[in-house]
């Protein structure tokens, strides 16, 4: 496979253009690519292009050789509603969610979330997670970059009107995924923090119309639960 890079302003076939600074740095300084090598570019909105590097160094340039129409998106529309997790767990969760084909990631602050972010720190962290999503798209072959939404408190997110179904992972009292009919609308999948959802949060989720679902009798870690659920959903109703 050719190296893949995210270029949001992808020109038309046959055009020559200067590579965006981030792409130029990665191609030149990290991967040590040279003029004449082929690369794959995508605009994050579905378009992909085969291109040739014309020159590197001070003014890295490329030529678009062919626009390729291909769709690698999952047939299920899933938004991962992930309670904030500590350390680098959120990076890992966002990365794997992209690989699994999730449509969007909505971070939420839960009662038992150890990580607390607000103001500029929250904005900076969301920007970082968005870049993690871009890098994961480059690696996984996706041509659409999912959006990492601004952090919301769980009550605020529950109060917002959303399209489709809302499912909350609940080890106790949830329906097994294998017993649920295939969803016909987008699904927002809610995953709790390290300490799990509180009883008050689970009650609020049910009042808001969220469907409790379970992944079997074992308790999964927050960084495992969402990925496992998405894998099961794609195996049951998706493209696996």
Keywords:
single chain, 240 residues, alpha/beta, Ribosomal Protein L25, Chain P, Alpha/beta knot, 2 domains, eight-stranded parallel sheet, 13 strands
How would you describe what is shown here?
Residues 20-59 form the Ribosomal RNA small subunit methyltransferase E PUA-like domain. It catalyses: uridine(1498) in 16S rRNA + S-adenosyl-L-methionine = N(3)-methyluridine(1498) in 16S rRNA + S-adenosyl-L-homocysteine + H(+). It comes from Niveibacterium umoris. Residues 73-233 form the Ribosomal RNA small subunit methyltransferase E methyltransferase domain. It is found in: Cytoplasm. The protein has 240 residues and is of the alpha/beta class. The chain folds into 2 domains: 3-68, Beta Barrel (Ribosomal Protein L25, Chain P); 78-237, SPOUT methyltransferase, trefoil knot domain (Alpha/beta knot), CATH 3.40.1280. The protein contains 6 helices and 13 strands. The chain has helices at residues 21-30, 89-100, 119-140, 154-159, 199-207, 222-237, and strands at residues 3-6, 16-18, 38-42, 48-55, 61-68, 78-83, 104-109, 147-148, 152-153, 165-169, 175-176, 187-191, 211-214. The strands form 2 sheets. Strands 6, 7, 8, 9, 10, 11, 12 and 13 form an 8-stranded parallel beta sheet that branches. A hairpin with a 5-residue loop joins strand 3 and strand 4 (48-55). The chain is elongated. It starts with a strand and ends with a helix. The mean pLDDT is 93.
